[in-house]
Amino acid sequence: MQEDARFGLDRQVTLPAQLKLDCGQILSPVTLAYESYGTLNPDKSNAILICHALTGDQHVASTHPKTGKPGWWTRMVGPGKPIDTNRFCVIAANAIGGCMGSSGPETPAADGAPWAMRFPVVTISDMARSQTLLMDYLGIEKLHAVVGGSMGGMQALAWAAHFPTRVGAALIIASTARHSAQNIAFHEVGRQAIMADPNWRHGNYYADGQGPAAGLAVARMAAHITYLSEHGLTEKFGRRLQGRDAKSFGFDADFQVESYLRHQGLSFTDRFDANSYLYITRAIDYFDLAEEFGGHLAHAFRGTRTRFCLVSFDSDWLYPTSESRSIAHALNAAGAQVSAVELSSPFGHDAFFLDLPEFDRVVAGFLNMGADG
Amino acid sequence: MLRPDLAVIADAVRAGSRVLDVGCGDGALLHHLRRAKGVDARGLEIDPANVSACVARGLSVIQGDADSDLVDYPHAAFDYAILSQTLQTTKRPDLVVDSLLRIAHQAFVSFPNFAQWRIRLALAFGGRMPVTRQLPARWYDTPNIHHVTIDDFRSLLAERDIAIDGQWFLSGERRRSAAAANLFADHGIFLLRRNGK
Questions:
Q1: How buried is B149 (Cβ within 10 angstroms: 0-12 exposed, 13-18 middle, 19+ buried)?
Q2: Which residue of A63, A85, A253, A259 lies most exposed, with the fewest beta carbons within 10 A?
Q3: Contact A339/B at CB under 8 A
Q4: Is B147 helix (H, G, I), strand (E, B) or coil?
Q5: Interface check A9 vs B, CB under 8 A
Q6: For the packed helices A181-196 and A274-285, what is the interaxial angle rounded to 10 degrees?
Q7: Mutate to test the interface with A, among B60, B99, B102, B103 (most CBs of A within 10 A)
Q8: What's the complex ipTM?
Q9: Above 80 in pLDDT, residue A263?
Q10: Per the confidence metrics, is the pTM higher than 0.90?
Q11: A82-107: string of b/e by CB count within 10 Å (b at 16+)?
């Protein structure tokens, strides 16, 4: 294929589409920031869409522009890697509502000022719908696969449910078809931390750049605990003290785990927008795929020809294996081709970012099935 | 090379049919059936390493348990359900057989025959639970919690009004007649159907 400016790293497009959102509002135009890796083949049958998690972005396997760190799934995506860019054209877009270049609270509304909290509340299915616009723009009618972990897995489910003819296969990792009360509760803690920060100012902090960093950091700290396992925390930190020999009898970060969480919280505020955090967590909370299909998850997949693979991790208590199993049951009831496997890892929900050879084999095996070459 | 009992099953499966292999192991049979017979191949397997191996070879396999997870499959979703050398490891073999015939029109069930003469001799004269080439585990670490003989299985079928559409008996690779099977066969393979269907 000739050099095509639509493909490559660090792309952004503003589409004149009218995106009808679940909340009833129309988002128009729709700006999407995205990247592609590998080359689309002549019959456009080798595209894989990777959907990112809550705080992820389109920099799947390229250097992050704000942190300078490698992309979040560099170990999985690349030439000769489990998602092999010699074979597949991998596309990843920043979710709408996000803060890495797609339409969201940080981007300008019609009046030229940032949307801030005027941005409409979006849903997981809205995110999937916005991505179909991007696929139309790229000339891709059918994806070989949609892949995602956590919130990305929810988008993959939404893709398969709403656009079954456009998805050959869906790989859903450490995810759920419905956000639970406990999941919503953790998100609400994070949102309240942001909104309680006096710098939040109902979201209008862009002009002076003094955002609710303290609130956002606390939100991240609370959420980060849910991504790890108790075993993982104990192994990594135990009750070890941070840079001292004895307790301070004060409120410094005495413990290594405190120091680690504070660092996680602070560094997060350098790369993420607090309003986006509100919007994206809300989108996840609203996710209940069965509800969109008359209360029966199986109805979401009726007559589907998409192949599904569900991967869960035994130490993930945020989206435990029981969530994957209930999706598998619904897919079975719908007669879908489905695989479901629980992998063993001590690292909790975050296991899907980490080195796990068995996971690599499952991903590669599932995606390569039915692919050309 | 397929295990001898799997080769018998693979031979009898109709091309292009829908198959669920319950306890599909590493997917050898499903893989073969998909390649050789173009079947729509699905599996259920309890061991996660085996499930990963299946998915890595492109099969649709769900991690689950024959005792508890067959309830999630709709009625008559498959042409065949296959239960090869798994019956004796289930908690309630009778209910598992019922489930197989609920979700599939026909079911293949194969199992090691505990009445084979070597096992009888070992038990009769050794006085110890037999450890043979076919049943290599010891009494305390065997996954086989319901040892069954070919005649036991036949009487279960009669009690539950289940018809036999085919039966094969093996000792090693050799076929045995139905009449001599309970004494001489180390494996029995049955193709079952619910009477009246």
A1: buried
A2: A63
A3: yes
A4: coil
A5: no
A6: 160
A7: B60
A8: 0.87
A9: yes
A10: yes
A11: bbbbebbbbbbbbbbbbbbbbbbbbb
